[in-house]
Specification:
The protein is of the alpha/beta class. About 55% of the residues lie in helices and about 15% in strands. Strands 2-3-1-4-5 form a 5-stranded parallel beta sheet.
Length: about 190
């Protein structure tokens, strides 16, 4: 039987701290975030959507026209703006964790790593690998494995690691709420 999760209690304990969802592209941050934010009474922000609005270009176009370093600068600026707000669930870009400056912002909130098994990630990315600038190469699986290896140490700095397999975004949100409840209880006790 599932533990009852009092989301009002969790929201109250969070006191408006931002929840930052991190993880590899395709991990489900953008699909899970709205469910989590609704449960907490928070607003949902997809950082990549904000970047595209600010830059007036798609993520792929920014990479193509201005390069990854320019994209990372925009990403940090957008994160700084988001970090000044409260009561948000933020789906970050997969590489946001690679910039040390970003961790100063992320650690002001609670960082949650959505960590799907490799096979599930591959299934999800097969469908849209053409939209992923860092996977645009012919051998995108090797690129994915290298990114995962390079980023694992950064993701492991998260406050919570939520391992997922076949769960729906709603179920992942429930797993996050359970982990948050336990973490906040431990912090208070």
């Amino acid at each position: 039987m599932k533990d009852h999760i009092n989301t009002n209690e969790i929201s109250k304990t969070l006191s408006g701290r931002i929840i930052f969802l991190v993880g590899m592209m395709g991990s489900g941050k953008s699909k899970t975030g709205p469910h989590l934010s609704k449960s907490l009474g928070y607003r949902f922000v997809d950082q990549d959507d904000v970047i595209e609005k600010v830059a007036k270009l798609s993520i792929a176009e920014i990479f193509e026209e201005e390069g990854e370093s320019s994209f990372r600068e925009i990403e940090t600026q957008v994160l700084k703006e988001i970090g000044q707000r409260h009561s948000l669930v933020v789906a970050t870009g997969g590489g946001v964790v690679t910039c040390i400056e970003n961790w100063g912002i992320l650690h002001q909130g609670i960082v949650i790593w959505i960590n799907p098994i490799r096979e599930r990630l591959i299934e999800r990315l097969k469908a849209d690998s053409g939209r992923r600038p860092l996977l645009a190469e012919e051998n995108w699986l090797a690129s994915l494995d290298k990114l995962m290896k390079d980023r694992y140490r950064y993701y492991s700095e998260s406050d919570l690691n939520i391992s997922v397999d076949q769960e729906t975004p709603e179920e992942v949100a429930q797993l996050i709420l359970q982990a948050l409840k336990a973490k906040l209880k431990n912090c208070q006790g």
